[in-house]
Amino acid sequence: MESQPAIRRQPNVRLRFYIGSVLFVAVLLLVTYYIDTAKYPVDPNLEPELDKAIDAYENLNNLLITLGTGILGAMGFLLTSRPKEHYRPRDLWPAGISAVFVGISLYFGYLSYQNVQFVLMNSIGTLDTQIVEWPKALHFYSLLAGVFFFADFVIQHLSKAD
After folding, report:
1. What are the sequence ranges of the domains in the chain?
2. DSSP code of 83?
3. pTM: predicted TM-score of the whole model, two decimal places
4. Tell me: the pLDDT tens digits for 25-34?
């Protein structure tokens, strides 16, 4: 039985990872679309409870920021945990792209928080506006992209540990 070298197996694993990631995101987008377009048995003329919406929004924002900073910390740990071995530049591009996406996510988290403050100061009365929804969505999806590239970097890191 002849075993394949690790170099030949790695592109197949990465290709399967990226195909699986794209399919996963597509399924998430379909589920999100289904949930967002579903009819709910709520009278649209009722005034929403803004305080509860703001609390939920702040909790989501805090969670995403915590996950983003955790990814940056884990990436720093992986990059500094092997002092004798150095990564080749082509092995570092997923880590770099992940760091950029996580940084973008943190920026949109800040922008989103500022926009919620704008909504409150101008007495708009709802968080269901474009000024709040777009940064919130970009905050989440840029973090999701950062997680996928971080996972690719971890797969590479673990394949070198063998």
Report:
1. 48-161
2. S
3. 0.69
4. 888 778 777 7
